[in-house]
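Researcher: I'd like a structural prediction for the single chain below. Treat it as a standalone chain; there are no partners to consider.
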Amino acid sequence: MVTILSKLQKNLVYAIPIAMVLGLLGGGFIFDAKPLKSLIIPITFVMIYPMMATLNVRSVFSGKDTKLQVATQLINFILIPVIVFGLGKLFLSGDEAKFGLWAVGLFLIGVLPASGMTISWTGFANGNKEAATKMLVFGLIIGSAAAPVYTKVFMSTTVDVDMLHMFKQICIFVFVPLVAGIITQTYLTNKHGKQAWMNIYKPKFPPFSALGVIMIAFVAMSLKAKNILANPADLLTIVIPLVIFYLVSYSLLSLVGKLFFSREDAIAMVFGVVMRDLSIALAIAMTAFGKEGSTIALLIAMAYIFQIQSAAWYIKLVPWIFGRGEEKVTPVAETSTANLPCKG
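Model: Treating it as a single chain, here is the predicted structure.
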């Protein structure tokens, strides 16, 4: 089973669109998708727990890259929320309620940064993986506190935002898996040794997260299938602000990285901002906004396609933007987690 899931993990670029098409067909013509909503929480745990179990939390306390970390989080929590809010106002301002809900989805992407893919893509480009890990941890902590407040301040006129309920949902989807992951990693390391953890056990976790990503994309699309089939132009409306968001993000971060940081640190910053936490954003959308959640989740589900595709293309541009770095030999354990798809 792990072998099959590993193949899915390495081919998420194709697996996620296929899952979304199957969800569209299934929810549109074959079955009643409403019962699938009860699967959101367990599927989300399947996505997030493996990434938390493989996360090197201790790296947060090592290294001296304060300038890089502060710059990254300022961009994450000041500039990016402003950008997504502006894009929502510009492109998702129709009279129908669905436009406002899609704007909420876009905003959730903007206030929940740093997915597990931050580390993976940074590694692919020979960037600073230690710095990327810190960005992920700091982003999780700050985002957990900031997301309910930001959403209430910016989006309360569009959708009813219960800050306490939203924070509780974030705790369920972030801190519970984080504690469980740390316990798992500590137990296996103490029992079997660090080398066994790195080479045998750690590589087994990420493929299960890939399964969770595919399942959540299928469920999200199934729940909105009938609406999409009745209004196919909705997909084009959603796609435009997403494409602009990723283009602006890559361009801006490449420029900032080129001007102010070393090659390795700049690459970490790019992926530390652009790889948004889509899994948690989806989970929050589906559980914190009641019946409106599936409409919000549609835009977030579509973002999976653009986020993964854009990262793959950007990797090809890294040598042209930042120059060629030294080739690094990737350890067995890191190779096994190279396509870590957790949380977006």
